[in-house]
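Exercise 3.2. Students should predict the tertiary structure of the chain below and write it as structure tokens, then compare their answer with the key that follows.

Predict this chain's 3D structure.
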Amino acid sequence: MQVAPGIQATEFVERRSQLISNVLKRAQEIDNCPSNHVIVIPGATRSYMSEKIPYVFRQNSDFYYLTGCLEQESLLVLVASRESYRAIMFMRPKDSHSELWDGPRTGRNQTKARTKIKVTISIQVVGDVERVY
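Answer key:
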């Protein structure tokens, strides 16, 4: 399945694996470095010119390179050990009212299929507080 123009989902899986491999390789070179690592890569948030007028959205390059996902306010967490790694994606839930104004959201199930990230968790930002579902 093509996630981004000309790029298959398997390439994004390979990119994440290569990042983990590089982190673990570098960690072995450093004395007393722990064997478990957590890498957190945030997606971009929407910026506004004025109270109601948004700038054209541009995803965080690192986030897009590793996921191919254009969802705003998303978060990729990679948890790695020497044996394996897990990828976890946090993202906003589908919301018909918000999608009416901001455009459609990918949703957890479609994100799993497109990015090959098995664990996706919905988060909702309410003011300054985040709720995890």
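Discussion points: The CA atoms of residues 98 and 123 lie 14 Å apart. Strands lie at 2-4, 7-8, 37-42, 75-80, 85-91, 119-126, 129-132.
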